[in-house]
Amino acid sequence: MIVTAPRIRADRWPAVRPWIGLAARLGLATVWLVAGAAKVGDLAASGRAVNAYQLLPYDVATVVGAALPFVELALGAILLLGLATRLAAGVSAALLVVFVTGIASAWSRGLAIDCGCFGSGGQLAAGQAPSYLPEILRDLGFLALAGFLLIWPRTPVSVDGWLAGEPAVEDDDE
User: What is the pLDDT of residue 110?
Assistant: First the structure.
């Protein structure tokens, strides 16, 4: 006897999809809020973390590092509310592609840095090894959440739906 994993029947997808979208939206919102909150208290450290990638001039890296926590907090708040979800998902996707590219670049150039994704980041102490692959895989997972929201941005309990006067669960005729 062959046992297979249960699959969502095609006729259930329209009913399940909005709730998966809600989970994706809230999950991505949490990621941005935690990442931004971890960095906003020490903007100089955030700038040093961006500078550690050695991709931007020092002055530009410090400005990007200082701005990044506020961008992350704004994305988190917007996604939490479900306001301009597709736009926030697009900005999230672009930012995550930049993060994955930066981490892959650091890895390929043999840099020993902490990504700074959820804290100070920067150069690792002697004897510490970077964890680039798990960081890239994690960010690709977050990118999948953003991609889902780019395709299906309407979710229950969202300002987007409220402003559009839509029911809590959308029809499949998007």
Answer: 93
d(CA 41, CA 34): 12
Contact partners, residue 23, CB within 8 Å, separation at least 6? none
Q: Are 142 and 28 in contact (CB under 8 A)?
A: yes
For residue 149, give the nearest of 10, 35, 27, 4 by alpha carbon: 27
Q: Which helix (H) or strand (E) holds 166?
A: none
pLDDT tens across 107-140, in order? 999 999 998 898 878 888 888 889 999 999 999 9
Residues 132 and 103: beta-carbon distance below 8 Å: yes
Residue 10 confidence class, pLDDT cut points 50, 70, 90: low
**Dist CA 29 CA 101 (whole Å):** 21
From CA 29, how far away is CA 142, in angstroms rounded?
A: 10
pTM value?
A: 0.86
Amino acid making up residue 54: Q
C-alpha distances in Å from residue 88, one per residue of 2, 51, 102, 161: 43, 26, 21, 15
Residue 123, H or E segment: strand 122-123
Query: Which of 44, 25, 125 lies closest to 84 in space, CA to CA?
Result: 25
